Amino acid sequence: MVDSLPIELCHHARMYRVKRFQGIADIGYCASKKMAYYGFKLHLQITDQALPMGYVLTEASCHDRTAAETVMAQLPHPYTLGDKGYVSQALQKKLYDEYKIAFWTPARKNQRVAQSKKWKQWMKQKRKIVETAFSVLVDSFRITEIRANSVSGFETALDGILLAHSLVVLGLVER
Fold it and tell me: What 8-state DSSP symbol labels residue 172?
């Protein structure tokens, strides 16, 4: 499964005058929170056991479809699920042709594709794994509260958080 998580670097009241990561981070929009934010977007590929497999960190304004190929090409899996932000027939075709990845996304309401009720239910169940993993990363590991001021420090903190989460998922360490 692949999804994205906004990583806010400052309070939205200061986002137009912030100097932290200037030129790297930018202003993006989080549809689920219905608000603009300054920071990055973490595109994460996880297994159905919520084990992180690959990630890409982009500026906040980067669309999910733009980073999808980069994330999935790191460790190609023959079947990958995404949310409605990844709906694109061109992306699905490209992923299959180049990497032999069958990329499944739920249909939007205005699409002609009719998906069965069982398929929608199964997708919703699988999507819950991603949402739970993101919730754990935010609440327990505080992934959205990284306070590093350098790119290398930020990447080190991010790698450490994902490693700790992986160890917990694998059962090698207790929370």
Answer: S
Q: Is 62 exposed, middle or buried (0-12, 13-18, 19+ CB in 10 A)?
A: middle
Phi-psi region of 50 (alpha: psi -120 to 50; beta: other; left: phi over 0): left
Residue 93 CA to residue 148 CA, distance in Å, equals 39
Distance of CA 114 to the CA centre of its chain: 26
120 assigned to some structural domain? yes
Q: Which two tokens stand for residue 119?
A: 């398929």
**Amino acid 161: pLDDT:** 97
**Stretch 41-46: mean pLDDT, rounded?**
94
User: What does the mean pLDDT of the chain come to?
Assistant: 91
Query: Which DSSP category does 106 fall into?
Result: P
SS3 173: coil
Q: How many CA atoms lie within 13 A of 115 on its CB side?
A: 15
CATH number of the structural domain spanning residue 105: 3.30.420.10
Residue with tokens 């090409």: 73
